[in-house]
Amino acid sequence: MTDKNNLSPVERIKTNSNGLRGTLKESLLDDFTGAIREDDQTLIKFHGMYQQDDRDRREERVSKKLEWLYSYMIRLRLPGGFLTSEQWAGLHEIAENHSTGVIKITTRQTIQLHGILKSHVKPTIRDFNLQHLDSIAACGDVNRNVTCTSNPSESPLHQEIYELAGKISEMCLPKTKSYYDLWIDDELAIDRKTEEDPLYQDRYLPRKLKIGIAIPPNNDVDVFINDIALIAIIENDKIVGYNIAVGGGLGATHGNDATYARLASLLGFVDTEEKVLKAVYEIITVQRDFGNRSDRKLSRLKYTIDKLGIEGYRSEVEKRCGFTFEPAREFKFEQRKDRYGWVQNHEGKWFYTVFVEHGRILDIDGYPLKSGLLKIAETGNVNFRFTCNQNLILSDILEKDKAEIENLLKEHGISTYTDEVSALRKNSVACVALNTCSLALAEGQRYLPVLVTKIEPVLEKYGLQNEDITIRMTGCPNGCGRSPNAEIGLVGTAYGKYNLHIGGDRLGMRLNTKFKENIGEEEILETLDELFGIYSEGRHSEETFGDFSYRYLQTIK
Ligand code: SRM
Ligand code: SF4
């Protein structure tokens, strides 16, 4: 149980927040600064926003005796990652009017906008509201965006888990109405009765909580990195229940050995949807009651699992549920990557997966991706879905509309780009990092594309250019681009320096291991050159780079 005498400062901010309102109203009205009050910086996260500043411009601002250039990032709550074409067109306009203009697809299947000035925060949320979109609980010590295997319309089963993602998201929403008071209605209409929150109470969770749902054989959601992982078990083309795993999480802190990345451990199997929802709910209440509220570095559910033991955690959940878990059932993942290009579903509808490098949708010279997508949205004949690999699926296209979409994809260079990029690039993920992330030690999405261009010829030298090797980069060890769960992981340590990790498997079932510490580009390329050389000569037939390097690491121990 939590040491009540030694609570982290964030605990006080939450319980004293008057339903997450704090002094946000006053902070927003203060024209003297682009920032908000310190405690409000914690509370605004629960409303799906972060205060940030442009780190590229810090020195310039200080030299001009100006405060840092503060702005806000807003993240949408989109369980299962879905927008209609009307919503996409609306989002395009909102991005143009209020943010840097770049639409960013995140590694949790949703959208972020960056660079929103304080005076634009409310108008942005209001415009989202007009599109029936919200950012409630997209950040903060609550359940975050629920992810599920992409392409919900691919089969009736996909639709079923997409709906489950929505139900879990709804069940786990905080009951406070402060989001609407603060950002939409302009009134503090607090009705204590309707704000009573049996799940979060007034202290919320000790830390963020993440839930993902996968349908084997596809693990595109990287399900085991979630605090709660649901794996659909299919028999005779029907979902007969879910294996539930708990305790995934990738964040760690350099130099703090008490912190670590961890994949979720199987708790057991439950059959009906009612039981799944109850189990998820009570897994959360156990974390609420037993999670560490003193040291936020050790407060994720993975540490609670390791403290109570998987048996201890299970028996507490079972006690609260009033039923027991069956032993976990057999399942097999066979792939984790997105299926680029055209795919047709069981109803004859078409889907086109667009490769979007690190989820950044913008127009650049010679590649008008963002304008092309707007034109596609304006046809009204497609939906937009997002993948946990930061890509976009144009979905639910009828046979009669396919040619029109195909032409627009060609006209804007989108299909040519998706077809032509290398296998390595298609399997690359990077986090945002600089210039907006306050925790970044090194570059992420701005640098991995450059590095991949330098790695491509090295792969070609060994005839490995068509291998689907996963490479992921994060600007720090928090793992937002899931670098610990890749065949090649690059984890920022300082500007231009990374730890190089290898030996993770391709399917997201085995974390990688640190191989080289704090190295720059030259040494990264030299090391990979050497490893690819040994791999091309010494690999077993069909052996992936991740499995080979895992084996190689055992031989050099
Ligand atoms: Fe993350 C914090 C971006 C997915 C683990 N993450 C942050 C912040 C908000 C930095 C901050 O706290 O000030 C980053 C904002 C950067 C920016 O400028 O936008 C940030 N995380 C992201 C995104 C946008 C990366 C991306 O390029 O796609 C992803 C948004 C997901 C979403 O839509 O909700 C994102 N973050 C992840 C993931 C991957 C996942 O969930 O699939 C992880 C690893 C899994 C996990 O949670 O363990 C992840 N983010 C973290 C952590 C480490 C938490 C921990 O347990 O130690 C932090 C730091 C923290 O919470 O203190 C963090
Ligand atoms: Fe920022 Fe680190 Fe997350 Fe990258 S991994 S977005 S640098 S917190």
Automatic annotation (TrEMBL):
Domain named Nitrite/Sulfite reductase ferredoxin-like: residues: 72-126, 346-411
Domain of life: Bacteria
Record bears the keyword Cytoplasm: no
An annotated GO BP: cysteine biosynthetic process
Cofactor: siroheme; [4Fe-4S] cluster
Organism of origin: Chryseobacterium antibioticum
Gene Ontology MF annotations: 4 iron, 4 sulfur cluster binding; heme binding; metal ion binding; sulfite reductase (ferredoxin) activity; sulfite reductase (NADPH) activity
Keyword terms, alphabetized: 4Fe-4S, Amino-acid biosynthesis, Cysteine biosynthesis, Heme, Iron, Iron-sulfur, Metal-binding, NADP, Oxidoreductase
Enzyme kind, highest EC tier: oxidoreductase
All copies of domain Nitrite/sulphite reductase 4Fe-4S, residue ranges: 166-322
UniProt xrefs under InterPro entries: NiRdtase/SiRdtase_haem-b_fer (IPR005117), Nit/Sulf_reduc_fer-like_dom_sf (IPR036136), NO2/SO3_Rdtase_4Fe4S_dom (IPR006067), NO2/SO3_Rdtase_4Fe4S_prot (IPR045169), NO2/SO3_Rdtase_4Fe4S_sf (IPR045854), NO2/SO3_Rdtase_FeS/sirohaem_BS (IPR006066)
Catalytic activity: hydrogen sulfide + 3 NADP(+) + 3 H2O = sulfite + 3 NADPH + 4 H(+)
Function of the molecule: Component of the sulfite reductase complex that catalyzes the 6-electron reduction of sulfite to sulfide. This is one of several activities required for the biosynthesis of L-cysteine from sulfate.
Pathway where it operates: Sulfur metabolism; hydrogen sulfide biosynthesis; hydrogen sulfide from sulfite (NADPH route): step 1/1
EC number(s) given by UniProt: 1.8.1.2
Subunit structure: Alpha(8)-beta(8). The alpha component is a flavoprotein, the beta component is a hemoprotein.
Stated name of the protein: assimilatory sulfite reductase (NADPH)
One annotated Gene Ontology cellular component of this protein: sulfite reductase complex (NADPH)
Record family assignment: Belongs to the nitrite and sulfite reductase 4Fe-4S domain family.
Coiled coil: none
